[in-house]
TrEMBL record:
Gene Ontology, cellular component aspect: plasma membrane
One example GO MF annotation: G protein-coupled receptor activity
Residues spanning the membrane: 23-47, 59-78, 98-120, 141-164, 205-225, 237-258, 270-289
Keywords: Cell membrane, G-protein coupled receptor, Membrane, Olfaction, Receptor, Sensory transduction, Transducer, Transmembrane, Transmembrane helix
Keyword Transmembrane among UniProt keywords: yes
Family classification: Belongs to the G-protein coupled receptor 1 family.
Domain G-protein coupled receptors family 1 profile: 41-287
Location of the protein in the cell: Cell membrane; Membrane
UniProt source species: Hipposideros armiger (Great Himalayan leaf-nosed bat)
Protein name (database record): Olfactory receptor
Function summary: Putative odorant or sperm cell receptor.
Length: 308
């Protein structure tokens, strides 16, 4: 109740991605194409993995969850962004803004933890193959999945707890197309240096350390398979390359946004757009296109439905 009394602002006005009508139309069409083509593709990946008895390995279990997380992540920003393109005044309530911010970081952190879990899975499979069946049991996979959800919730609730304590008394214009920590903090009617520092540690340092740790883990895997057979080395290299591509797509924009002081750069909105809308839909697709087992299963599933 104290928070509501200290916060005069009840809604925020989103300035959007751009003021150019031509660029807005281009972005609208681009997002619509992604939603109509790639988003159903993500759910098709989930259906394929769930329906094929041959895709029961932990790798595919985590891949299905990655597709679910990425699809859910895009629902936070993109639908409202599409609706805002058709509206003259882009307004979001204070509670709606905090809710959007919470789920953005909840699912985003969950995906970071999932990529860490997938790296651990690949390390055990490639470097400790004899222990793989005893370490990555179904129970262990579900426990890891639960841990990443809990970790994502803890990270996000810490972000929200810092934001809701800030007083907002105007102005109320957010220079973005969605609610995120850097832009919201700037509108607070108080000194936010300590809060910004805590946010950098909570989001920026956390993201950077995970990024460096993941790169180091795949470097270790590649070093361990140097003496393997040609076939084993080729498969390990293909798997690691796919994971590293996703890591750069996921962590690159996040590091750019959250590991520096909350100053504004011209590229911020463009980076945020690709980070929140485009890349999440593409991540599972990249995994699928580079995984022969999933591609074969997907073809069989489509063929079966086409014949029916």
């Amino acid at each position: 109740m104290e928070i509501e009394n200290s916060t005069v602002v009840k809604e925020f006005i989103l300035l959007g991605l751009t003021q150019s009508q031509n660029i807005q139309l281009l972005v609208f069409v681009l997002i619509l194409i992604f939603y109509l083509i790639i988003l159903p593709g993500n759910f098709l990946i989930i259906l394929t993995i769930r329906s094929d008895p041959g895709l029961t390995a932990p790798l595919y279990f985590f891949l299905g969850n990655l597709a679910f997380l990425d699809a859910s992540y895009t629902f936070i920003v993109a639908p409202r962004m599409l609706a805002d393109f058709l509206s003259e005044k882009k307004v979001i309530s204070y509670k709606g803004c905090i809710t959007q911010l919470f789920f953005l970081h909840f699912l985003g952190a969950g995906e970071v933890f999932l990529l860490v879990v997938m790296a651990f899975d690949r390390y055990i499979a490639i470097c400790r193959p004899l222990h793989y069946s005893t370490v990555m049991t179904p129970g262990a996979c579900y426990a890891l999945l639960m841990a990443l959800w809990v970790g994502g919730f803890a990270h996000s609730i810490a972000q929200v707890a810092l934001i809701v304590r800030l007083p907002f008394c105007g102005p109320n214009q957010l220079d973005n197309f969605f609610c995120d920590v850097p832009q919201v903090i700037k509108l607070a009617c108080t000194d936010t240096f300590v809060v910004e520092l805590l946010m950098v540690f909570n989001s920026g340092l956390f993201t950077l350390l995970c990024f460096l740790g993941l790169l180091a883990s795949y470097a270790v895997i590649l070093c361990r398979v140097r003496g393997s057979s040609s076939e084993g080395k080729s498969k390990a290299l293909s798997t690691c390359t796919t994971h590293v591509i996703i890591i750069f797509l996921m962590f690159g924009p996040a590091i750019f946004i959250y590991t520096r002081p909350f100053s504004t750069f011209p590229a911020d909105k463009v980076v945020s757009f690709f980070h929140t809308v485009i890349f999440p839909l593409m991540n599972p697709v990249i995994y699928t296109l580079r995984n022969q087992e999933v591609k074969s299963s997907l073809k069989r599933l489509l063929s079966r439905y086409m014949v029916c």
